[in-house]
Every structure is written in C-alpha cells, then in structure tokens.
Automatic annotation (TrEMBL):
<dbReference type="InterPro" id="IPR002319">
    <property type="entry name" value="Phenylalanyl-tRNA_Synthase"/>
</dbReference>
<dbReference type="InterPro" id="IPR005121">
    <property type="entry name" value="Fdx_antiC-bd"/>
</dbReference>
<dbReference type="InterPro" id="IPR036690">
    <property type="entry name" value="Fdx_antiC-bd_sf"/>
</dbReference>
<comment type="similarity">
    <text>Belongs to the class-II aminoacyl-tRNA synthetase family.</text>
</comment>
<keyword id="KW-0547">Nucleotide-binding</keyword>
<keyword id="KW-0067">ATP-binding</keyword>
<dbReference type="InterPro" id="IPR006195">
    <property type="entry name" value="aa-tRNA-synth_II"/>
</dbReference>
<dbReference type="GO" id="GO:0004826">
    <property type="term" value="F:phenylalanine-tRNA ligase activity"/>
</dbReference>
<dbReference type="Pfam" id="PF03147">
    <property type="entry name" value="FDX-ACB"/>
</dbReference>
<dbReference type="InterPro" id="IPR045864">
    <property type="entry name" value="aa-tRNA-synth_II/BPL/LPL"/>
</dbReference>
<keyword id="KW-0436">Ligase</keyword>
<protein>
    <recommendedName>
        <fullName>phenylalanine--tRNA ligase</fullName>
        <ecNumber>6.1.1.20</ecNumber>
    </recommendedName>
</protein>
<dbReference type="Pfam" id="PF01409">
    <property type="entry name" value="tRNA-synt_2d"/>
</dbReference>
<feature type="domain" description="FDX-ACB">
    <location>
        <begin position="302"/>
        <end position="393"/>
    </location>
</feature>
<feature type="domain" description="Aminoacyl-transfer RNA synthetases class-II family profile">
    <location>
        <begin position="36"/>
        <end position="300"/>
    </location>
</feature>
<dbReference type="InterPro" id="IPR004530">
    <property type="entry name" value="Phe-tRNA-synth_IIc_mito"/>
</dbReference>
<keyword id="KW-0809">Transit peptide</keyword>
Length: 393
C-alpha cells in the first residue's frame, strides 16, 4: 500500500494475506459485498437522513493502541495474542475489527453518525464460513446528553425497557442515568432490527434474537442472531459505547451506541453463497452473476468433488490451532475448504499430545487431481514440522 514496514519478532503476516489488502472487495460495484454495503447505507440514510457519514477507505494497518487500548481491551485479552491477530510488527497490526477506527472518527465531532466499512483480518480456523479476511460495517451514533436531562427512570425500569436480564453482568454504566442509557439502547435495537428487516425483506418468517454479550468497549452489550439452516448465526455485536471512550475523544457531552456487523455472514444468506472463499473468486462464472442494486441468488457452477487427506502429529506444548490453520492457508491457499480436528489424545505413559486433522481439498472451478493434492499435502507435512515444531506420526 505504498509504505515500508520493518519486520520484527512479532511479524506473523504471510504473503497470501498481504495480497488481500489491495483487493478492496467492498468497493467493487458489482460485488455482493458492495451491493450489501450500498443497501444498508441506503436504508440507514432513509431512516435518518443526513445523520450518517460513510467511510470505506481507511488504511487496514493500525496500531495496537487503536485496535485495542483505545477500546479499553484488558491487557491480557486473548484478541491481542499473535495466535489470533496478524501483526505487521510490534507497533502495527492488521485491524481485527472496524471498531479500530472508533476513537479516530469520534474525535472528529463533525458528524453524529458513521457507517464505516472495511476489510478486517483474523487468524482463525479453516472452514466454509471462516476466512482470514472478512468485511465489517461499523455503525456509530451519538446524541447530545442534555436532550435526556428531563427524563427519569429507575434502574430496574431502564433494564426492563432495554431487555437486560442481569444488570450486574451487563450493567448500565455508572456515568449514565438509567433514562439516557435506555433511550440510547432502544434506539440502537430498533435501528438494527430495521436493518435486518430491510436486508432480509424477501424472507418470510425470519427468526432473530438478541443475546446479552460482553465487549470491552460497550455496556450494556448485545449480539443479534438470525436462524439459518437450523443454526443461530451471529450477525452483529453492539452496545452503548463506554463513556470513557466518549470522554477520551472529547465527547463528554455526548452518549452513543455502536455496532459491528459481519458482511459476509449476511451476504452468504442473502445471495445464497455457500462458501466464503467464493467472495474472493475472480472466476467470471462467479463475478458475472451480480449487478449493483440487485439481490440475486447465486447459481453454483461447481460441485467438484472434495478430496480428503489426514495428517497426524505429536504437538509441542506451545502448539496453537491457529498456527496450524495459517500453514494450511499459506501452503494450500483457497483449495483448502476445511481443516477439521478429528482426533486428539494424550499418550497415557509419555504424556505426549497428539492431534489428527482431516483436510478437505476442493477447488471452486475445477476437479483437483489426486497427484496434485498429494503434492500439496506433502509440502504441508514438511511445513507443519518446520513452523509448528510438531513430529509427524
Ligand atoms: N468489534 C466487535 C467484533 O468485531 C463487534 C462490535 C461489538 C462492534 C460491539 C461494536 C460494538 O461497535 O459496539 O467482534
């Protein structure tokens, strides 16, 4: 992206991920992610005209301060670990969420609302709904606190109004009056419910639910889930922004809500896209199916057969699943559809731990030959030994 960064002992981002930084799928007019982004922006601008400013080109390389500290992440929060996050070096990382830009945009007090869309990066497992890069839209909305000054509510009334069952676990912040917290939370919930009703307008009998959640940067907090193929699928995290964040960005006079929504999850449902790798496809049979402004159902062009290969090894104590996933991604790229742990045991005498993974190889656009998969699997076996310190069995 036109800038040099020195590597150091924190560097854990590899070439296959770096390549993705320049793709900017959410800015390609006929891409499903861009179509979804435009649909939500359009809906939000109709709901509250002139309130939301859209931003979609912020640099994915941010400091740990922006991604974590400014959002009040605890010093030992697992999200900070290099097993979960891609570090460019000790001082720079690939944003793990769009919330990384909250403190920057809040400091600029010229707008009461933001819709911020971006690619985000996380080290994660390998399957049809997880990919090291995905896209989020962050919504932020702030209100002048003085407008709630005349309103009174008891804490119990406010918790009941916003649907919080346990006020000790998911509290109203001590800096907020119950009435203002409830007003902001209800605005948040109705805004998000209207977003999903709009996005899934064609689906009859859509089922969704609010779960109480914990995020370091909001309280109370919730996530919203929709029912998909009999499973609850998490679509957003959201909540009332911690007042310390408002205070630290020069907004003591304001109170706000924020949400972060996963665009792929929603787009997979809307467009019937069965595998998250397809979003990255440059195959014309994928790209030619979508047109700006229209929601169409994806017509699969491939049911190419999968090819399974197992790999088992003794693991060192430092072994982490995500390190293994990363090697699979670097070596096999997008022909790895899933890497699933199928067996795990500890030897009763030696105490050594063993793991067995089944790798499902499948290309979106062709049938893989056994010889080709064998060659990839062999390179994977060597790379896991070198990079994860395992002993093959
Ligand atoms: N950043 C969170 C994530 O990626 C999602 C989120 C939760 C964003 C709550 C928010 C929020 O703005 O208020 O998991």
């Amino acid at each position: 992206m036109g800038k040099d960064y020195a590597t150091d002992s924190w560097t854990n981002v590899g070439p296959s991920v770096l390549e993705k930084l320049e793709r900017r799928l959410h800015l390609q007019a006929n891409h499903p992610l861009a179509i979804l982004k435009a649909k939500i922006e359009h809906h939000m601008n109709e709901a509250e005209p002139g309130v939301y400013r859209s931003l979609d080109s912020l640099n994915p390389v941010v400091s740990p301060k922006l991604n974590f500290d400014d959002l009040l992440f605890e010093a030992d929060h697992p999200g900070r670990r290099p097993t979960d996050t891609y570090y460019v070096n000790a001082d720079n990382l690939l944003r793990t969420h769009t919330s990384a830009h909250q403190s920057t945009v809040l400091r600029d007090r010229s707008s009461r609302g933001y819709l911020l869309t971006a690619d985000v990066y996380r080290r994660d497992e390998v399957d049809q709904t997880h990919y090291p890069v995905f896209h989020q839209m962050e919504g932020i909305r702030t209100f002048d606190r003085s407008q709630f000054a005349g309103q009174h509510m008891t804490e119990a009334e406010a918790l009941a109004a916003m649907g919080v069952k346990d006020g000790a676990k998911n509290p109203i912040q001590r800096q907020h009056t119950p009435a203002e917290a409830a007003a902001v939370a209800l605005h948040l919930k109705s805004t998000l419910e209207n977003v999903i009703k709009n996005v899934f307008a064609s689906e009859k009998g859509l089922q969704w639910r609010w779960n109480e959640e914990y995020f370091p940067f909001t309280s109370p907090s919730w996530e919203l889930e929709v029912l998909y193929n009999g499973k609850w699928l998490e679509l957003f995290g959201s909540g009332v922004v911690r007042q310390e964040i408002m205070d630290n960005t020069g907004n003591s006079d304001r109170i706000g809500w924020a949400f972060g929504l996963g665009l792929e999850r929603i787009a997979m449902r809307m467009f019937n896209i069965p595998d998250i790798r397809l979003f990255w496809s440059t195959d014309e049979r994928f790209t030619s199916q979508f047109r700006a402004g229209s929601i169409s159902s994806f017509v699969p062009f491939s049911k190419y057969p999968p090819c399974y290969k197992d790999i088992s090894f003794w693991t060192p104590p430092t072994f982490h699943d995500n390190d293994f996933s990363e090697v699979v991604r670097e070596i096999a790229g997008d022909i790895a559809e899933e890497a699933k742990l199928i067996d795990e045991f500890t030897h009763p005498k030696t105490g050594r731990a063993s793991r067995c993974y089944r790798i499902n190889y499948r290309a979106m656009d062709r049938t893989l030959t056994n010889a080709e998969v064998d060659e990839v699997q062999e390179r994977l076996r060597q790379a896991v030994v070198e990079r994860c310190g395992v002993e093959l069995r």
